Amino acid sequence: MKHRTLGCLFEVLETLLLTLIVFLVIQLFVAQPYQIQQQSMENTLMPNQYILVDKLTPRFDEYHHGDVVIFDPPAGWSHDASGTPFIKRVIGIGGDTVDIHDGHVFVNGTQLAEPYVYMDQQTQPADPNNHTWKLATGQLFVMGDHRSDSQDSRVFGPIQKTSVIGRAWVRYWPFDQFGLLAPAAAPAGATDAPAATASPTTKP
After folding, report:
1. How far is the CA of 193 from the CAs of 45, 95, 138, 199, in angstroms?
2. Measured at the alpha carbon of residue 93, what is the angle toward residues 92 and 97, in degrees to the nearest 5?
């Protein structure tokens, strides 16, 4: 009887350990939950919604114009001591020139149509004397959809792709708003990089 009890206990422990390993592998390499807690992506993503972050496909598919990405902010830009990641939309990729003037965003000279921008807000640079960015290979220019309530590349400049954790994939809560988060269309004349073969619940 004692040996049978120990055998059952070992089976339970083995199952729990295997479950934990599977969970960690999924969270580290496949998908990770993320809680929206700020207003920088309104109305696309609202505070207290939950999404899954796709960490798998970026390993073999580059980030594209219009993707919503979660990334570690540049040094000194975290909202708290824990280094909470940010969530923003990709506006420019390596090789692009991004220019902001007259309330609009231009990528490689083409004005973007941005139906996702909150309340049709105009987009203004943080510094009127610094409104044009030429992106190097491996850089992304990102902005929040709520332009007047977003700390983004207008302030801290382009980010490195290596700082990106993954792309927003599925909104799963509230359940009545469940759905895939499709990227916005690329600007006319812009070319996404070709696919290449080749990182806790947080707030933006």
Report:
1. 26, 9, 10, 20
2. 60
**CATH number where 117 lies:** 2.10.109.10
* 143: in domain: yes
The domain total for the chain is 1
Find, among 99, 100, 40, 97, the residue nearest to 70 by Cα. 40
Beta strand spans in 112-158 (E): 132-134, 139-143
Its pTM stands at 0.81
In a domain, 189, yes or no: no
- The answer as to whether 164 is a domain residue is yes
What pLDDT digit, counting tens, does each position of 105-140 carry? 999 999 999 999 999 999 999 999 999 999 999 999
Report if residue 185 sits inside a domain. Answer: no
Residue 168 in tokens? 């927003």
Question: Which neighbouring-strand residues pair with 139?
Answer: 160
Domain enclosing residue 106, as ranges: 32-180
Measuring CA to CA, which residue among 197, 185, 198, 201 is closest to residue 90? Answer: 185
Residue 77 half-sphere exposure toward CB, CA atoms < 13 A: 18
